[in-house]
Design brief:
TIM Barrel, single chain, alpha/beta
Length: about 120
């Protein structure tokens, strides 16, 4: 049986430059926490994705998930929908409103619905 384990490198950074310096050649997938970025430039993220040549997984966590995003849930999902144009995977918490998950699913190439217990 072939080994199908993938190494995902989560990156929480304030700038794209900081993200680029943290990317490891050993990682199979690069996980970008959009809620940590001071400014989200999707064109630059798309360019970085092409330069790196590895799949990008985007997350944008709100306060409930111990994230830094302070907008509404609808705004958070809109950020993730925009991210679908420059990444491979989108991760959203299972407790997100089902209608918003469905809206996101229409745009995402690969949608991961996850649960993290931060207690």
């Amino acid at each position: 049986m072939q080994n199908k384990i993938k190494y995902c490198l989560p990156i929480q950074a304030k700038t794209l430059e900081e993200i680029e310096t943290r990317i490891s050649k050993k990682a199979d997938i690069i996980e970008i926490w959009l809620d940590h970025l001071h400014e989200i430039d999707f064109a630059k993220l798309k360019s970085l994705r092409r330069k790196v040549g590895k799949p990008f997984l985007y997350v944008c966590k709100g306060k409930r998930e111990k994230g830094l995003f302070r907008g509404t849930e609808k705004e958070r999902i809109e950020v993730l929908i925009k991210a679908t144009s420059c990444g491979d995977y989108i991760d959203v918490d299972i407790r997100t409103d089902k209608a918003l998950i469905k809206k996101l699913a229409l745009s995402a190439k690969k949608l991961i619905i996850s649960y993290h217990n931060f207690e």
